[in-house]
């Protein structure tokens, strides 16, 4: 490997791309090389940008998405032509659905071969256009900086998402003398207009049972800070989507009615049902279908977001505050004070807290050598300090965590809630460790989702990623199983065989631990916290109570006590 030197003179389009990435402040690039894109990797050898080689392109773009979510700046990934680029599709769809800025570069055959049936020819620009905010090809070396600049602006502009740039091999290698354009960032948004903010404040003051609904953009740090100040001044109750985790600080926990999503059966759903006005902040309908939480479509919704609302039959805001979320919330805070109506639903908040406490108290596995989901989460609570980032894969374990594990730092818990993508936890954890190598990261998968990205355990070992990966093992695609059983009275095509995950981890050079009790799980986590490098802990989980995750609310009508049976 040659010594890196960023002073190398521009020679070709590949060098121009690298210069643009450097100027934009990109520190890491994740990818897998191939003949059609290797010139770009070669150019990176002379750059201070760190190149990370992944084991699968899908995981490479997941890692880029994790970097994007945690930093707010585009994570960058690179793949070669044909199947290399097509493997990016799921990761780019996830990023675009969930507001994570990502820029993906893909190799392509030379321009003369683009319309031929030749090795790895594929119209990747058209293929990725539906799952990105921007998808384009660099058609000539002179257009390199223009295309890259547009792609970065699109990826990072509200709402953030995926961008894709295809580079024909001959363009990548051709001489190019372009000015760097990646320093031209998207314009900063201001607050919503003053008259609209005053209108929202007036509506809020008139409401008898107002409530805040936090969405994915609420967990951006500057937005979370403004939301906390708004909550402190108004004393309003709040519920959040799964992806809004961490927006509510610990001192405001008494105003929090829980996280909602997937199934309409939480105290947060009851709070929303009882409200006569809802303030949605940073909410995207993809997080939780409006038709599930908004049965009273005639009541007003004040929507605060960086972009106009995507209208739905069950989501037509009466007032929209469009602009910088943090600045709009700050201005709204200045217009309102303590709201007497804020305490109207306190009995429901108290019932929520009592219900959660009771659930932990009674949680105990009925199976020898297995743990109840809440036994696992209770142990984790003792280790999850505010500086530890949690990364969750998709599965029924994801619902247990979303409903019961409290976190109080913005972007502390990364959850897939748009595409509900399996396999993201390990790559996201590696991204968190790359960005902050001194801090521990805990990621969680099921035994099904872990095997979708488990090859990256080698990458984690190579990077000395400071992560603890917990596997909830039951030998089923369990979230699918419980839904099938509810719909059909039986399951189908959800079972698979056991794996000795401790031995599997050790074969990659990681530490592997199998546990079978609460005490052994505590000991394993203590050992993991003291270990440098990746640790895998396999926990056999008793999912007997999983059907309760979908159990309906007893009633969605007001009761004298404000209590509902869960």
Layout of helices and strands, plus pairs?
Elements: H1 13-23, E1 28-31, H2 38-44, E2 50-53, H3 57-71, E3 75-79, H4 83-86, H5 89-98, E4 102-108, H6 124-128, E5 134-137, H7 144-156, E6 162-168, H8 169-173, H9 194-206, E7 210-214, H10 221-234, E8 238-241, E9 256-260, H11 267-274, E10 277-281, H12 290-293, E11 301-305, E12 319-322, H13 325-335, H14 346-362, H15 373-381, E13 389-392, H16 396-404, E14 413-414, H17 425-435, E15 441-446, H18 447-450, H19 457-463, E16 467-473, H20 478-488, H21 501-508, E17 511-514, H22 518-530, E18 535-540
Parallel strand pairs: 1-2, 1-3, 3-4, 4-6, 5-6, 7-8, 7-10, 8-9, 10-11, 11-12, 13-14, 13-15, 15-16, 16-18, 17-18
Helix pairs in contact: 1-2, 1-7, 3-5, 3-17, 9-13, 10-13, 11-14, 15-22
Global shape: globular
Total of domains = 3
CATH topology of the largest domain: Rossmann fold
Helix content: 25-40%
The largest sheet, given as strand count, sense and whether it forms a barrel, is: 6 strands, parallel
Tell me, rounded to a whole number, the average pLDDT. 93
Q: Please tell me the CATH architecture of the largest domain by its name.
A: 3-Layer(aba) Sandwich
Low-pLDDT runs of 5+ residues are: 1-6, 555-566
Treating each run of at least 4 consecutive H or I residues as one helix, how many helices?
22
- Rg, Å, rounded: 24 Å
Count of extended strands:
18
Distance between the termini: 60 Å
Structural class, by secondary structure, is alpha/beta
Would you identify the CATH H-level superfamily of the largest domain?
A: Thiamin diphosphate (ThDP)-binding fold, Pyr/PP domains
Strand content: 15-25%
Q: Strands across the major sheet, in which order?
A: 2-1-3-4-6-5
Kindly provide the name of the CATH class of the largest domain.
Answer: Alpha Beta
């Amino acid at each position: 490997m040659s010594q890196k030197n960023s002073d190398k003179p521009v020679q070709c389009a590949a060098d121009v791309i690298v210069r643009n990435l450097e100027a934009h402040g990109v520190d890491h690039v994740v990818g897998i090389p191939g003949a059609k894109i290797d010139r770009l990797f070669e150019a990176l050898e002379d750059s201070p940008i760190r190149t990370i080689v992944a084991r699968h392109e899908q995981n490479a773009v997941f890692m880029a998405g994790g970097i994007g979510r945690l930093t707010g700046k585009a994570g960058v990934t690179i793949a070669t032509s044909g199947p290399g680029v097509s493997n990016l599709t799921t990761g780019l769809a996830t990023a675009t659905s969930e507001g994570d800025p990502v820029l993906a570069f893909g190799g392509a055959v030379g321009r003369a071969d683009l319309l031929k049936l030749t090795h790895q020819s594929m119209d990747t620009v058209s293929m990725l256009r539906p799952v990105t905010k921007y998808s384009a090809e660099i058609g000539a070396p002179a257009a390199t900086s223009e295309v890259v600049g547009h792609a970065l602006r699109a990826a990072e502009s509200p709402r953030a998402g995926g961008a894709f740039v295809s580079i024909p091999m001959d363009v990548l290698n051709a001489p190019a003398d372009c000015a760097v354009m990646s320093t031209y960032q998207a314009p900063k948004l201001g607050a919503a207009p003053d008259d609209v903010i005053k209108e929202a404040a007036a509506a809020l003051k008139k409401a008898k049972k107002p409530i805040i609904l936090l969405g994915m953009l609420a967990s951006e740090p500057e937005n979370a800070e403004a939301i906390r100040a708004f909550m402190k001044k108004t004393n309003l109750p709040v519920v959040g989507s799964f992806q809004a985790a961490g927006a509510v600080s610990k001192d405001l926990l008494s105003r929090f009615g829980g996280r909602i999503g997937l199934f309409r059966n939480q105290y947060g759903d009851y709070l929303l049902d009882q409200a006569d006005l809802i303030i949605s902040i940073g909410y995207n309908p993809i997080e939780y279908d409006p038709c599930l939480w908004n049965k009273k479509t005639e009541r007003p919704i004040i929507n605060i977001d960086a972009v106009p609302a995507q209208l739905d039959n069950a989501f037509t805001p009466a007032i929209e505050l469009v602009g910088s979320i943090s600045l709009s919330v700050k201005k709204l805070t200045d217009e309102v004070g303590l709201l007497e109506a804020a305490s109207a639903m306190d009995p429901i908040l108290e019932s929520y807290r009592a219900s959660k406490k009771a659930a932990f108290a009674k949680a105990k596995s009925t199976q020898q050598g297995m743990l109840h989901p809440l036994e696992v989460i209770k142990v984790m609570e003792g280790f999850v300090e505010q500086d530890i980032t949690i990364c969750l894969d998709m599965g029924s374990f994801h619902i247990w965590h979303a409903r019961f594990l409290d976190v109080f730092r913005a972007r502390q818990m990364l959850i897939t809630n748009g595409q509900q993508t399996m396999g993201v936890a390990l790559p996201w954890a590696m991204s968190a460790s790359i960005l902050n190598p001194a801090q521990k990261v805990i990621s969680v998968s099921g035994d099904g989702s872990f095997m979708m990205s488990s090859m990256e355990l080698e990458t984690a070992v190579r990077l000395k990623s400071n992560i603890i990966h917990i596997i909830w093992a039951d030998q089923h695609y369990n979230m699918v199983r419980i839904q099938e059983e509810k719909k059909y009275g039986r399951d189908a095509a959800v079972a698979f065989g056991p794996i000795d995950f401790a031995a599997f981890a050790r074969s990659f050079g990681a530490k592997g631990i199998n546990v079978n009790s609460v005490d052994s799980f505590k000991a394993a986590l203590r050992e993991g916290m003291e270990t440098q490098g990746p640790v895998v802990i396999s926990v056999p989980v008793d999912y007997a109570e999983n059907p309760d995750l979908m159990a309906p609310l007893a009633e969605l009508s007001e009761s004298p006590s404000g209590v509902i049976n869960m």
